[in-house]
Structures are given as structure tokens and as C-alpha cells.
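FAQ: What does a ligand-bound record look like?

Like this one, built around 7-methyl-guanosine-5'-triphosphate:
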Amino acid sequence: MASEVATEASVEAAAEKQPQKLERKWTFWFDKQNKPGAAWGTHLRNVYTFDTVQDFWRLHDQIFRPSKLPINYDFHLFKTGIEPKWEDPENANGGKWSVTCNRKASLDTMWLDTLMALIGEQFDETDEICGVVASVRQRLDKLSLWTKNASNEAAQMSIGRKWKEIVDVNDKIDYSFHDDSKRDRSTKSRYTV
Ligand code: MGP
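The answer part, i.e. the structure of the complex:
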């Protein structure tokens, strides 16, 4: 009897140690914003690519928590193969939903909830998603969810609604096109949800 229990326990322990594969690979990035006037993206670094649940938790817990970042730094989680910049072909026609956060604790929670939704493939329009950025700033921290086809209003509205549920935000959130942001920093939003 004792050996039966021991066998069950060891099977469970072995199962827990098995890496749980994610649907796809994801990459964490890191960036430090330059002083105004300096070239954007010179500090942008691809830090770690993973495809298991275990690696995700290890990386999140040890490194990728926005509350650990100083002001003017960013973390990103993007699908592997997509660079977190407008210039990447997957982002070239895209845009982003943005949520501001006024407390470090809520930034960490919203970031983690978003990461889990992304790696858990919780969005219906999963092909539309490129990644998410956490920006730590002097005034208000911000999360931005980058998507692929900005002009696909139905897809973006559906993603925006779902994201609000995930991060538990009641205020309106805005979607801007990267093309507009390239032209004018104080760009207006195209969609609101
Ligand atoms: P931002 O970070 O998207 O705007 O871009 P935000 O959030 O209003 O500003 P922040 O100071 O809070 O970060 C800020 C500026 O960075 C843009 O106006 C661009 O000059 C530059 N920039 C930002 N992004 C995401 C890119 C990019 O992907 N490519 C290039 N070339 N420049 C970028």
C-alpha cells in the first residue's frame, strides 16, 4: 500500500516537472528611453525567448515585473519573430490599445494579467495580437497592447473589449494607429471602448 502511494506521488512529482509547452514562442524585451532628440530604440534589447509555462513564471518572478523598473524604462512581451517597433512588417499597419496606471501595484497586476492572457491565447483574434509594452514613466505608467491590422475595426474593438475585462478597467481606453503616431506625437485615438 505504502509503495502504491509512493508511486502515485512520484508520478505526480514527475508530471509537475515536465515542461508545459505553450502554444507558441514568446520573447521578453527591455528598453530604456533616450533623452529627447536622441535616436529611438538604441537600448532596445531582445532578452529571453521561452515556450514553457515554467520558464514564463521563472522569468516573470525573477526579472520582468514593471515595478522593478526605474522611470523611463520599458518591458515588452512580443510573439517571437516580431520586434517591438513600428518598423517590423507585422507592426507596419498596426496600432495599439493603451491603458494608464497610477499605482505601481496596479501596473504589475495588469501586466501579469495581460501576459497570462497572451501566453494562454485567451483572445479570439489571436493572430491580430503582436505583443504588449509596459512603460514606466514619471507621471503615469502605461500598458500598450500592439495589434497588427489597425484598419480592421471589428477585430480591434473585440480585442479592446476583451483586454478591458482582463485588466479590469472601467474607464474608456483608446486605440491609436502607429502610422498616425509616426506623423504626430500628440496623435488622436481612432477607436474607443
Ligand atoms: P511612444 O513611446 O510610442 O509615445 O513614442 P509616448 O508613449 O507618448 O511617449 P513616452 O515618452 O511616454 O514613451 C515616443 C516617441 O518615440 C515617438 O514619437 C517616436 O519618436 C519614438 N518611437 C516610439 N516608438 C514605439 C517607435 C518605433 O517603434 N520606431 C521608431 N522609429 N520610433 C519610435
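Follow-up question: can I read anything off the structure? Yes, for example: The two ends are 59 Å apart (CA to CA).
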